[in-house]
Structure to design on (413 residues):
């Protein structure tokens, strides 16, 4: 039987890999900060609260960037915005290497976040529009499996730089490596084209303004879907970003692991994350979007509480890193396909970008909450409780979300 990947035409496969690598390199640049937190706590005397503020500021700005990119993607094209986003987040990741204080790094990471948010808003819609409805969940979810690949690249760069260089130099080199994704745009210029769905909406764009398009997101017919999608994103990303932001610090400080052992524990978690993206992408096409969201949320809540609250032996913590990554990423896997199916073509990027990134802005407050409460309740307890509460939101939304599996993409509001 023909696999879902081989069923795609050559131009669809090129689009798949462009979106996959864009998301992977986006993840790499974002995750570099998590690896330098322990070093900056020592070198700059930065507090955990300040580290949480930087992480949250980047995520909040990414929400703004995602909304802007979504609106622009409906006006000037998904591919053009995707390329601009990749160039933007690469530039400001590299500039982070030149910072010398909390406030300077806060500025560069906040600006980096604008491009980070824009990449998903354009890329998820692009791949969702070019593939057949029967494989949309698998294709879009597999694209999002690029995140753990990028995370792994960041972990590899961390291990190499911090093993070869002194800490006060290694963290700067790590950020310089973040410039490399910008070169991918050279390949995209020759190989990636706009989706037919975007081209088909040309007449609508000629008759309407940017603000008219954006206002449709909040029209009576669309608003309930916008609200549910935003809450879904807030819960899924709130839990996900909590783990992504604080796991390295948890392993280094709370568990006292060395750089090499931290990398090993992260490798298990990242592998679980990759498997979660792929497995839940397939499951969303088999069981449906709603059931997959609910299953992932329940699994994520149980595993994050076990990981942070139980007194496990170190080998147990190592093994539990796999399901921790599996479920935290399994939730996110289905959102790209679901959001593409929820909204009509003329506002698909705007509505999907707003919902995902407004939710991201709310979810971005969770890592900061961990940093603020860790002084009173401890880092482990803070991570577990904040993340678990986020996953409860996902489970609740899954009960009411419309099922969109195997539906034709909407054309008009």
């Amino acid at each position: 039987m023909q696999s879902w990947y081989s069923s795609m035409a050559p131009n669809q496969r090129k689009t798949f890999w462009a979106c996959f690598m864009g998301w992977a390199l986006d993840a790499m640049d974002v995750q570099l900060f998590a690896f330098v937190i322990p070093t900056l706590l020592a070198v700059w005397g930065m507090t955990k609260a300040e580290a949480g503020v930087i992480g949250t500021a980047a995520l909040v700005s990414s929400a703004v960037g995602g909304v802007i990119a979504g609106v622009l993607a409906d006006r000037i094209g998904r591919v053009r915005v995707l390329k601009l986003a990749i160039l933007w987040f690469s530039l400001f990741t590299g500039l982070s290497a030149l910072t010398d204080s909390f406030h300077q790094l806060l500025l560069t990471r906040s600006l980096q976040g604008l491009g980070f948010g824009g990449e998903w808003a354009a890329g998820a819609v692009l791949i969702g529009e070019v593939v057949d409805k029967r494989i949309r969940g698998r294709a879009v979810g597999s694209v999002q499996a690029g995140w753990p690949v990028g995370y792994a690249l960041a972990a590899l760069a961390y291990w190499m730089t911090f093993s070869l260089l002194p800490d006060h130099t290694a963290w700067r080199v790590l950020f310089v490596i973040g410039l490399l994704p910008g070169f991918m745009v050279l390949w995209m210029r020759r190989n990636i084209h706009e989706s037919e769905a975007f081209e088909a909406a040309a007449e609508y764009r000629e008759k309407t303004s940017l603000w008219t398009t954006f206002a449709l997101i909040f029209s009576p017919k669309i608003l309930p879907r916008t609200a549910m999608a935003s809450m879904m994103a807030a819960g899924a990303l709130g839990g996900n970003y909590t783990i992504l932001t604080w796991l390295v610090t948890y392993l280094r400080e709370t568990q006292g692991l060395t750089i090499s052992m931290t990398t090993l524990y992260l490798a298990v978690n990242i592998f679980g994350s990759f498997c979660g993206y792929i497995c839940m992408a397939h499951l969303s096409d088999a069981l449906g979007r709603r059931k997959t969201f609910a299953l992932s949320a329940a699994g994520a809540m149980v595993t994050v509480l076990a990981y942070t609250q139980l007194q496990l032996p170190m080998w147990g913590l190592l093994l539990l890193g796999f399901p921790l990554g599996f479920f935290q990423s399994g939730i996110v896997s289905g959102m790209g396909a679901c959001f593409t199916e929820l909204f009509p073509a003329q506002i698909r990027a705007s509505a999907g970008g707003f919902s995902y990134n407004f939710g991201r802005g709310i979810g971005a407050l969770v890592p900061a909450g961990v940093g603020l409460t860790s002084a009173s309740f401890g880092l482990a307890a803070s991570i577990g409780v904040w993340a678990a509460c986020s996953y409860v939101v996902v489970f609740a939304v899954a009960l009411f979300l419309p099922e969109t599996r195997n539906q034709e993409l909407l054309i008009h509001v």
Residues 10-43 form the longest helix (34 residues). The chain has a mean pLDDT of 87.
